[in-house]
Design a protein that fits this description.
The protein is α+β, with helices and mostly antiparallel strands. Helix content is 31%, strand content 31%. The chain is built from two helices and three strands, in the order ββαβα. It has a three-stranded mixed β-sheet with strand order 1-2-3, covered by helices on one side.
Amino acid sequence: MGGVNLNNVRRGVAQAANLGYWMGEPFANQGHMSDALRVLLPHAFHSLGLHRIDAACIRRTSRAVIC
């Protein structure tokens, strides 16, 4: 289906992490990644105490650019 993860968690002043994600083409444009992020992001900010999450996207993936 797909996956999402937090990588390179940096503690100290920044309290930051990188967000990685992918979605298999048969499952794209169905809201699954949005659902996953609605669960992950509150956990990252509240439970893990992060202040910043960076994510990158591939420009040709137009739905990722909308986020």
